[in-house]
Design brief:
- The protein is mainly alpha-helical and about 110 residues long.
- The protein has one domain: c-terminal domain of poly(a) binding protein, CATH 1.10.1900.20.
- The protein has five helices and no strands.
- It is rod-shaped and about 85 Å long.
- It starts with 6 loop residues before the first helix and ends with a helix.
């Protein structure tokens, strides 16, 4: 019985990996074994950092809210505590945007919770 190989699928798989490796430096872009490892590692980093991006942005929003609150004589923790106590349902992303781009609106919120 003749040997059966699926060259079509093999070629498609390799083409897909090499397409992902486009733009890499040196042998990572054109040598199969090196490109395969580089793409695999890149995909791992991409998966991990999609989670880390959320963490990073939350930290950034907290810093911006803290800066805005301190301009009005409050700390971040006091401000967030009073926001929750007054049942103001604005998340950190919106509060940070107000603190940065609409300081008058943010000041109105601070005055309301004081």
């Amino acid at each position: 019985m003749p040997r059966s190989v699926n060259s079509v699928a093999k070629r498609a798989r390799r083409k897909r990996v090499m397409k992902h490796a486009k733009g890499y430096f040196g042998r990572r872009k054109n040598v199969w074994t090196v490109a395969k490892n580089a793409v695999e590692k890149g995909m791992t980093y991409a998966y991990r950092d999609r989670k880390n991006k959320k963490r990073t942005f939350r930290g950034l929003w907290i810093q911006r809210i803290n800066a805005g609150a301190r301009m009005h004589g409050m700390s971040y923790s006091q401000f967030i505590g009073k926001i929750k106590a007054n049942n103001i349902d604005l998340n950190r992303k919106v509060l940070a945007d107000l603190a940065m781009n609409h300081p008058d609106a943010f000041e109105a919120i601070v005055n309301k919770v004081k």
